[in-house]
Amino acid sequence: PAFTGSGARGRGEGVFLALPTLTAPSRFLSSPQMAFDFHIPLSSEELLRSGGVNQYVVQEVLPVRQLGAHLGGLQPSFRTQGPLFILEHFDVIYSILHHFRAVDPGLKEDTLELLVKAVSCHSRELPAVLEDSDLSPANRLLHLNSLKMNCYLLTQLLEAFEAETYKMGLNVEPCGKGKKVKGQDSCFDWQVQRDQVLQVLAHLLQLDVHRLWSHAVVEEEFVSMISGSCYKILENQAVAQVKNRAVRDAVAHLLGVLVKRYNHMLSASLKICQLLQHFEHLAPIFVHAVSLWATEYGVKSIVGEIMREIGQKCPEELVRDTSGVKAYFVFLTELAEKIPAVMLPSISVLLDHLDGESYVMRNALLGIMTEMIIQVLNGEELEEMARCTRNQFLDTLEEHIHDVNAFVRARALQSFVRIVQQKALPLNRFYAVLTLVVGRLFDKSVNVCKMAIQLLSAFLAHNPFTYKLSSADLQMLLEKETCKLMEIRQQQKGSTSAALVSAEEEWEAMLPEIQGCLQIILQGNPEEEEDGRGGSEEGETPETIAERIVLLLKKSSYKVAIACARTAMSHFEGTKLFPGSMEEDEQRRLLSLLEKLFKDNEHNVRASDCEKEEPAAENAGGESAAAEAQQSQLLKQEMLVQYLRDAFNFAIKIEEAINVISKMMYETAVSVVQEVIEFFVTVSQFGISQAVVGIRRMLPLVWSKEAGVREAVVNAYRRLYLTPSGESARLKAQALVHNLFLLMVDSSLATIRCLEEIVSEFVQKDEIHPSVIQFLWEQFTGKCLCSVLERRAAVMLLGMLARGQQEIVGSNLDTLVSVGLGERVQEDYQLAREVCNTILKITDSKKPAMSEKDSPFRLANDHILFERLTDAITAGISQPLLYWVSFTETALSLIYQLAEEPQRISADILQRCSRRVHEQLSSQTQGSLEGKDLLEERVPAAGAPSEPGTVLPSFSLVHLLSLAGITALQQLIHLERSVGSELRRRRVLREEQEAKDSAGTKSKTKGNESTMDEELGLVGASADDTEAELIRKICDTELLDGQQCFSAFVPLLLKVCSNPGRFSDPSLLTAASLALAKFMMISADFCDSHLRLLFTMLEKSPHASLRSNIMVAVGDLSMRFPNVIEPWTSHLYARLRDPCRTVRKTACLVMTQLILKDMVKVKGQVSEMAILVSDSDEEIAGLARNFFNELANKGNTVYNLLPDIISRLSDPECGVGEDVFHAIMRELLLYITKEKQTDNLVEKLCQRFRTARTERQWRDLAYCLTLLPISERGLHKMQESFDCFGDKLSEEGVYSSFTTIIGRMRRGAKPEFKALIDEFEQKISAIHNRGLENVEPPAGKLPVGTSEKARKKCVSGKRQPLSNVNSRSDANFVTPRMTRRKQPSRKQVVVSFSSEEEDEEEDLEAEMSENETPKNTTPIRRASARTTHKK
Questions:
Q1: Which residues contact 927 (CB under 8 A, 6 or more apart)?
Q2: What are phi and psi of 536, to 5 degrees?
Q3: Is the pLDDT of residue 1370 over 50?
Q4: Going by C-beta distance under 8 Å and a sequence separation of 6 or more, which residues neighbour residue 313?
Q5: What is the pLDDT of residue 1364?
Q6: Is 1168 within 8 Å of 1159 (Cβ atoms)?
Q7: Contact, 251 vs 290, CB < 8 A?
Q8: Which of 736, 809, 806, 799 lies closest to 767, judged by CA?
Q9: Taking the model in full, what pTM does it have?
């Protein structure tokens, strides 16, 4: 070796091969030149430079080609000299490290093995050396240098291997798998070798090696050298893998030894904080290590040091360093989960971050507090200090529920979820936290809402009150127990006489007031202070007056008692009760007298009581025990009342939350919807009445496009209804059916349809037990006792089950017919209707597809089912039954879907029903109608001649017309669906047969043409068109001609609809109008010829139900004949302003469907839909908003319509106020999200200022501009169009809007943009302040007088009638580049609906005149049958 200050010599290869055989210690001790110090360098290059006196320096770095030979010579030296061999051969291993990348892998492995053996050998020898009391300084120095040299080389080699592994991207696997660092003759596994190195170093450091250093203090460089290697290993991300757990444990233990025995705590805390900032994967590793040091090694103070280092981090830096702060978050929260008690004393050093800008650190602090509350500060037996700390932590969590950052709010709620789940929340905080959580349900953040719902679910699942949280039941119980508590208190108050206070205590209590009264009496006029009762009465003795004085004292009549005492002292002075006194002070004499009288009397009374109670002395112990029991009962009752009061308040708050959460059922965020569904499942388990509302509201979500939402709904119903309680399968079936019945009560058809979808899915997955089906059949057939409603529900449930498994109904068809459609069918047409619906369920699976060759499933005409249906319909035609019409509609649908020849059966039904009505008319004509409470109509029956005096009950005519309309519609559906499908099926079979017969007989030319047609898809499409045309021809020419039975009803329908004065019954008019509309569905010509009558009834009828029904019917007609209905579109839009809420709602729904399905052209009239956005009815406003939401998804439709909508709504003749206009525009302009659309809309609105005639229109246009996010380009367009609105700035409202626009543009604007804004602001300010004196009016501007007249008209204008609104044009407010033809004014027609009966039919006509009928102008093209077939 070479060292500075002594004659160092160079050594060559031969030096290592010819080593002496003397033992190393004797040789080194005999050579004074070997006395050197090895200083651990900061970098390996420092060993090549000269240092201080006796500092070791590497003399020569050997070349690579010589390293193998030199290393081979180290093995004998190690065997002879042991670990001290490194003192002479350090340079060889240093050279290997220096050329590490170029050295052969086998040489590296051998070097590592040699160093591991050397350190391990030194670890075994050192205990004896350290215990040697005669150890010389020279020998100590030899072992110290050898220790430092071996450890230095081993750690450097460890880091070199680790760096190479990381650089090459090697995944260290067990031997034989993957790519490995190859050795010479054996498989080298670095993972195993690394573990061995760490274990050797840990074993070495467990020794008292500090004795080798002077003053027994290990130098910091040595500790840093070992710890640095450990940290280098941890920097590799691969160490975080599960397979490297042994490495992590070894590093943790090695660092733990350094921290505990080598004063590495401060350095470790700093290093941990530094590494966490750069390596996120180290957070869980350091959590394990620090918790290990604090528990197994007992170094708890390092936790505080690390927390102090993190607490001193600058908040601004943490905001910028997102990666580091995330690692801090993971480290602190996970460490709090492991050792919260150790962290609790140092939590104060982190509290400053609660007010910092980093929301991640705030979340970390909240997580730490949560773990401390759960694991350390939980329970009721806490000390006062711990209780205060818990309250402070809970206060902090409550405060951050309202944090400005949504992630912190969500984290605070999540913390409370864990606290509630672990039952660590004190009961007195339940209500306060619950109130805060309900408020967070309105949060804009999805995560916050989701966590709030989770917390409410946790409150319910872990509430300390009761399993059933019905507020009504709790309120009744609370009132009962409160009354009981009051009774106990009254009893307790009555029994307190046994525990009287002593006479002395009672006198002391009265003394201050007696003294005050004495002072008043003695200072004032005594005579005035004396009461009339103060004097002594005749015959009164000293004893009686003494008793009266004591009684007055007990009644607090102190002045009267004093007056009596003064009188008695003068009259009875010298007696036993009133002896004379030597006191000169009258006040003292009176006080002494009163005290003596009071105490003597009390003592005498109590002595007497004691004498009376002496015989019962033996019962005193029992009475004392009874008093204690009564007191205990009082305390228990008070606790019970408080418990019930808390439970009642809790239930009320939960019900309030349910009302809010139920409205969140249809949120766009899937996660929120799933949480809402889970919440209602939890709520329903606690018996809360409002839970059924939420359970029903989630049903439509079964149609959701989101698979997660649909699955959540199905699982919710599976948990709620498929797991009923019961000991046997029978009881479980009864409970399941009962629960479903409660859900179906008062449910709408849409709810029933959704439930059917879920139940059918359960059946398909075989989740319904057969006992449920058996119980339903027993309920339906009456084998088990049940109500009428339960029978209907049983049939409905059987129908739902049949959708999933048709055999349930198909195998029991006879039972359904015999029981549900038997002789007593007239008693319950609702049950008969549900039976028909249930049978209809089996027809869905029987319908064949086009490709099927089997004939469709049909029943013969003489089947008992059709006989029963015919009898049931016919029997009810002449009876005022409420559900006959709905039953008939379902029955006819069943007939047309199952019967072989349904038209024959329906014709027979029509004939029989008409005959019945005619017979009823004849009987009514012959008899008398007196005493019958029926609405009568003077109309002839169908086909009967008109005779004066013939009368017919209104319901009979309603039934007959409804039957005719239903039959006509079912006949149309039968032709287009069943007959059309059958024609196609037969054609396909015929074509297949012809293809087989004529195979190979066609010519080549024809074959080529046919092939071309088939390739173009024209053969099948042409045939489909032919068949559709045939069906259409039958409908147009045959169904309604004079030879068909339907034609017999047309005159009657027209007569009823055309004479509303004569036929004034709303139900009759409704039935006639709907039947007429169904007849119009058959033929386009018939529809066109009677549209005027139908729209007359829609416009002029005073009955809201009739207008609503006609609106729905016209919507269906629009779907079938859009070109025929298109000229009447304005009349459809007019219903959106109907004064009746129901009609407006129906019109909104119908127009939404027509517009979204492109059956009605979207024009400026859509502004009528926009008006509904601000409708007073919230439901209608919601429907209008949903319409525009859907319309916005169809490209740029809303953007294209906005200019016309603004023009129409700002027209003073439209009748929309400014406030309403503002509300509508705030909604509609939210759909303009693209910057290009915004800029173009700014330009269009500015241009429209030219044609605006009134100041109201100016203000409206300017207000619309304030709602748009105007960009720099938009500002340029405003400046280019300045001439359009510059002269309008004199109006204060317009100028105010433009100043608002400028203020919004200035927010966050760049300096260049701000300059443009300032210039624009100066320009409009100058124009506004100057007025119009120096501004030239733009071309085409109207005179001021005209504008002023228009403005006055706008101000005084009122809401216009519907007819005027619909007929007026918006010629006053048009786009400059467009020209409009002047619309001819329509003649105002006055139509009166007479309620009086008149004989002249001409006076009862209520139709629009011919010149009022719209003409076809813009036909709407329908998709051809060919296109439909292709789709």
A1: none
A2: -85, 140
A3: no
A4: 273, 328
A5: 38
A6: no
A7: no
A8: 736
A9: 0.69
